[in-house]
UniProtKB/TrEMBL annotation:
Protein name: histidine kinase
Species: Kiloniella antarctica
UniProt keywords, alphabetically: ATP-binding, Cell membrane, Kinase, Membrane, Nucleotide-binding, Phosphoprotein, Transferase, Transmembrane, Transmembrane helix, Two-component regulatory system
Occurrences of domain Histidine kinase (ranges): 378-591
Reactions accelerated catalytically: ATP + protein L-histidine = ADP + protein N-phospho-L-histidine
Length: 595
């Protein structure tokens, strides 16, 4: 009784531990779901904000896109680029015109370069950092315009040191492109709007360099390492001036089922918008603090619920303890009685199984003896031939001995020896076949068992003029069983096939062996009369036979079925499409035994 109480206490303890474990897991899963839900919500908000930011950026740039195109058709600019390059007065006149246009359009700088990259006129011609006289032929926006394309390029100004977005357009004359008109747009006001909004947003170029950001300390830093080749190209066009382009402490991670990034030891939920026409990436970052806060709240609520349920359950358990104890005592007595009954049934089942196995072994032995009786006539004929030949060779040996022909005598004696070995093989097969099967299973090479069975029915094959075709496997296949019972299976199938072809002129018997899906598959196929549906349904019933004149007992296939099932195999009978029957036997494949 004391042990039972201890068992009950352990079960209760384990139950509470399981409850607490499930409660903790459920709380964690709920917290995780809240995190995922919050992350998805923030992701949707981020997409909406990115769409707005992308529209604002595109509008700020497209606002000035027309200027280079319009100015490329200005006659004064064309004259400056063709006939008045060396005229300072005319250059100043064009610069004043550009300055007025620049003030009206509210752009940063407007300037004109010839086809060599020299700046001939600029809206900032009076400033200390005037572009006039500088050569910017190495800038990509100039090179693109000289190829007849619209140039677009973000860079830090070489003369002014002010970053901006450059847009260019070629100036055409009869002789071709004579120069380029460029507008520089200052995106600093856009950055201030981002910064004043209190949100974390930035743009990186195709080299992962951050060139616009609401965080000033992130400007001109990279998200990923830049190869030396790309760094050399950036330096050659002086895109970011003397900036060192250091890499941010940037790495990716997973949080609440979402991809997050960690920059300078702070984690953000990142959403990216690709600006395809510029090959830029617009990044919007949400700190994960909001997600963590909601998760912490969920965990706190879950913990309070668990504690409340635990206290309430303890109170209820205290009131019902006596009732539960008495009920369990009664249940324990019932269980003990059931266990005793089960033990009696188990003993009875084992005895029954032992009797059934003994009966099956007796049936197998009876079947083998019946097979021996049917094969005796054919085997006697098989033995009579070597006996007659031995008589002839012995008589010949006597004559050769009288004549002193010792060499020829040795040949006759070798022939006699071969005949005796053949007779010994026949009788040895019968002796092996007649013995009882061992009770212990072992690894059996399947082709060896088939070969022994064929050797036993060979006289029947010869007397019936049966053409036997064997398709062996590519390598040795082993099954778990005993060779004697496996031989019985194949002998029964071969004899049935021979009987089924009794009235067929050209008898063909085929045996296929292969390995398929870790199983050994054997097919025994004949071209006999085949099987109808009624026969297939009763094929494995004891004492059922289709033979007439009491030629069979109807036990062969029943014994075969029992042996195959006992060796964890499967047997199936079907009809061939071209006529005849086919038996498909499957055994689990066994590894080759080691020495």
């Amino acid at each position: 009784m004391l042990n039972k109480n201890r068992d009950v206490s352990k079960k209760i303890l384990y139950g509470w531990l399981l409850f607490l474990t499930l409660g903790i897991v459920l709380t964690w899963l709920t917290s995780h779901w809240v995190g995922v839900s919050t992350a998805l919500e923030l992701r949707q908000v981020a997409k909406e904000r990115l769409s707005l930011y992308q529209g604002t950026l595109t509008g700020a740039l497209e606002k000035y896109r027309y200027l280079p195109f319009v100015l490329s058709g200005n006659e004064d600019i064309k004259q400056l680029l063709t006939t008045s390059r060396s005229d300072p007065y005319f250059s100043n006149t064009v610069s004043r015109s550009l300055s007025a246009t620049n003030n009206k359009a509210e752009s940063n700088v407007l300037y004109v370069m010839d086809n060599k990259g020299n700046t001939l006129a600029s809206s900032n011609w009076k400033d200390i950092n005037s572009f006039v006289g500088h050569n910017y032929s190495f800038r990509p926006y100039f090179l693109d315009a000289m190829q007849g394309k619209e140039g677009r390029f973000f860079a830090i100004g070489i003369a002014s040191g002010i970053p901006g977005f450059y847009m260019s357009h070629p100036v055409y004359e009869k002789e071709g492109i004579v120069g380029v008109v460029i507008v520089k747009v200052n995106l600093a006001p856009l950055q201030r709007q981002w910064r004043d909004g209190g949100e974390t947003v930035f743009i990186s170029d195709e080299n992962s360099v951050i060139f616009l950001s609401s965080r000033d300390d992130w400007l001109y830093k990279t998200l990923n390492p830049i190869t030396s080749e790309r760094m050399k190209q950036i330096k050659s066009v002086r895109q970011y001036g003397n900036s060192s382009l250091e890499q941010l402490t940037y790495k990716s991670a997973k949080f609440a089922g979402e991809k997050i990034i960690e920059i300078n030891k702070r984690k953000y939920l990142e959403t990216t918008w690709i600006i395809t026409n510029q090959r830029w990436n617009l990044h919007y970052l949400f700190p994960v603090d909001l997600i963590k806060e909601r998760q912490r709240t969920t965990i706190a609520i879950g913990s309070v619920l668990l504690i409340t349920i635990f206290v309430a359950a303890l109170f209820i358990r205290e009131r019902r303890q006596k009732q539960i104890s008495s009920r369990r005592a009664l249940e324990s007595e019932k269980i003990q009685a059931i266990n005793q009954q089960l033990e009696v049934e188990i003993v009875e089942r084992r005895r029954t199984e032992k009797e059934l196995r003994s009966a099956q072994d007796g049936l197998v032995q009876a079947g083998k003896l019946a097979a021996l009786g049917q094969m005796s006539a054919a085997i006697a004929h098989e033995i009579n031939q070597p006996i007659a030949a031995m008589r002839t060779f012995v008589a010949s040996a006597r004559l050769l001995l009288q004549k002193g022909k010792i060499e020829e005598l040795d040949i006759s004696l070798q022939n006699v020896t071969s005949l005796t070995e053949r007779m010994g093989a026949i009788t040895g097969q019968l002796k092996t076949f007649a013995r009882k099967a061992p009770s212990k299973l072992e690894h059996v090479e399947i082709m060896q068992a088939i070969s022994r069975a064929i050797a036993l029915v060979q006289p029947l094959l010869d007397s019936g003029n049966v053409v036997l075709t064997i398709m062996p496997p590519k390598h040795l296949l082993f099954v778990e069983g005993d060779e004697v019972r496996l031989e019985q299976v194949f002998i029964n199938l071969l004899r049935n096939a021979i009987d089924a072809m009794e009235h067929i002129d050209k008898k063909r018997l085929e045996i296929f062996v292969e390995e398929k899906d870790s199983n050994v598959v054997i097919r025994v196929r004949d071209n006999g009369t085949g099987l109808n549906d009624t026969v297939i349904n009763q094929l494995y019933d004891p004492f059922f036979t289709t033979k007439i004149n009491n030629e069979g007992l109807g036990l062969g296939l029943s014994i075969t079925y029992g042996i195959v099932k006992d060796l964890t195999g499967h047997i199936e009978a079907t009809n061939n499409a071209v006529g005849g029957a086919e038996f498909l036997i499957t055994f689990p494949s066994s590894n080759k035994p080691t020495d």
